[in-house]
Amino acid sequence: MKTLGRIALYAGLTVAALTFIYPFLWMASATFKPPAEVGTLALIPDNITLDNYRTMWARAPFGRALLNSTMVAGTITLAVLVFGSMTAYAMARLRFRGRPALNAVTLAVLLVPGQLTLIPMYTLVVQLGWIDTYAALIVPYLFNATAILMMRQFFLQMPQSLIDSARMDGMGELRILFTIFWPLSKPVLSIVAIFTFMGSWNEVLWPLLVVREQQLMTLPQLLTVFALGGGAGSIGVSLASAMVLVVPVVIAYAFLQRNFIESMASSGVKG
Amino acid sequence: MRAEQRSGSLMAAPYAAFLLVFAAYPIAFALVLVFLQWDLVTTPSFAGLDNVRLLANDGRFWRAVANTFVFLSIHLPLQIATALVLALALNRPLVLRSFWRASFFLPVVISGAVVAILWSNLYATDVGLINRLLVRIGLTPVPWLTDPSTAMPAIAAMVTWKNVGFYVIIYLAGLQYIPRSCQEAIEMEGATAWQRFRHLTLPMLLPQTILVVTLSTINGFQLFIEPYVMTGGGPLRRTYSIVLYLYTNAFSYQKMGYAATIGVALALIIGAVVFIQRRVIGKEETL
Which terminus of chain A has fewer Cβ atoms in its 10 Å neighbourhood, N or C? Predict the structure, then answer.
């Protein structure tokens, strides 16, 4: 009975795991199939072809989009880590006027659904003349309330003696933050880095609003426009363009899955 | 102390300025836009309560609200059930435990745009993988995304598939807090596996269930990329979502006042629904 139960458990787990993995494997294999074969269930194509990738690459600026996405997500992540930790450090360890208010406002901001501010943010970006600029994609994300609260929570647990002795040595607050706190905060910094990067990498609604110029589109946006606009022309080509977005993420996930799960689960980011 | 004051203010100042421009101003301006008519080109004109009146009588908006409730009525029970089952399976001594967990979580890290494109192919009536499987086992193919009665359920099932790994992690964390002594005590009493689940595990996981309900409800109200990519809101507007309608009004019709009004209404509806859900589930707890 016991062994029977275990066999059933592992059979169930295998079916479940296949349900989540198989569609992606099928997608990867479909991109190497000629149009006539795409509909088949087989994972190994009879005739392997790179045509889908050639077509995709020739028809829309995916290389440029990859660059745009990397640039945008990278800049935002760096800013959220550097500026966010400065803010969090001040909010956790320095007494200044307005600190309680700043804490309260940060909590309140998290409760406001993004859809409420979507249109006013859009009109703001239009009025600033930022339509079709990197600024529109980056500046509204330079600070992140969730990240600041997480880092603040972590910084609160550091011993005050660390700060006191560093000040005694004549260190300024920024040096204390970046040379003493940062090395001790790797767990929280990596959590913040992953969910910030993933959130930006996968975001599609905001770019759809503020960018119309193909050369400035991020990957998920170009992919969506390409698939919907009929530019792809065939399933294989549209899935091949999706691979550009998926492959870097899957590689990173394979190496850092524990960090990914912890990071995205603790922040509420869901692709 | 004075130095601490100064560096504190200096280090927090950029964030305070950011909040003013990108949080306080948009929230305040959203409420102003409700009373304006504005196409972004001409000067905005005061419209009184026109936007609110229009919204109250806008069949398309209420269609989208109704669609969201259809979505949630399928998505919520399915999401809770699948997340619970997978979490319970993972919460045992297992070979390759982290592999199973990682495979369930895989769709969570993939962009919603990719998942939507992938699944519009899996759901395709003639060449889709799912219908090929159905045909192979002798069933008739289903026009998943083109039949008004199956389109929204199909999207709800897909979103459940995409997010379940996230909720499995939440339930797993909750399962860790059920004391071993409780489990042993109830086993000593001779409770069956189902009784243990019904009277110990499920009540102990109530905080996690409330979290799952709240998060997937908020998520459901924000449905956008799935109908945008897969159905365009059709067939017969049955998959038109509130955010898709908001986006269309802003981007295609240039109606900023009306789009902002939809955004405010959406925030109010989310708040009200989450509040009612918590009251109802909270009552259950005291029974």
Answer: N
Is it true that domain A61-267 has CATH number 1.10.3720.10?
A: yes
Percentage of chain A exceeding pLDDT 90: 80
Domain contains B4: no
Q: B68 is in which domain, residue-wise?
A: 34-286
- Give the CATH number, domain containing residue B160: 1.10.3720.10
Contacts of A238 in chain B (CB under 8 A): 117
CA–CA separation, A121 and A210 (whole Å): 10
A-interface mutation test, from B41, B117, B167, most A Cβ less than 10 A away:
B117
Residues in Cβ contact with B284 at an 8 Å cutoff, skipping those fewer than 6 apart? none
For residue range A68-94, what is the model confidence (pLDDT) as tens digits? 999 999 999 999 999 999 999 999 999
Is the pLDDT confidence value at B285 over 80? no
> What pLDDT sits at residue B206?
92
Say if the Cβ atoms of A224 and B264 lie within 8 Å.
Answer: no
For residue B287, the model assigns a pLDDT of: 47
Structural domains of chain B, count: 1
> Is B150 within the bounds of a domain?
yes
A264 contacts in B (CB within 8 Å)?
A: 108-109, 166
CA angle, residues B43, B45, B48, in degrees to nearest 5: 160
Please report the pLDDT score of residue A233 as a whole number.
Answer: 75
B133 touches chain A (CB under 8 A): yes
The crossing angle, in degrees rounded to 10, of helices A145-156 and A235-267 is: 40
**Which residue has better confidence, A186 or B128?**
A186
Q: Is residue A61 reached through a cis peptide bond, with omega within 30 degrees of 0 on the bond before it? A: no
The pLDDT, as a whole number, for residue B178 is: 84
Nearest CA-CA distance, residue B217 and chain A, Å: 12
CB pairs under 8 A between A and B: 265
pLDDT tens-digit map of B154-207: 999 999 999 999 999 999 999 988 887 887 888 788 888 888 888 889 989 999
Distance (Å) from the alpha carbon of B278 to chain A's nearest alpha carbon: 16
Question: Is B271 within the bounds of a domain?
Answer: yes
ipTM of the complex: 0.92
Q: What residue ranges of chain A are covered by domains with CATH 1.10.3720.10?
A: 61-267
Shortest alpha-carbon distance between residue A149 and chain B (Å): 13
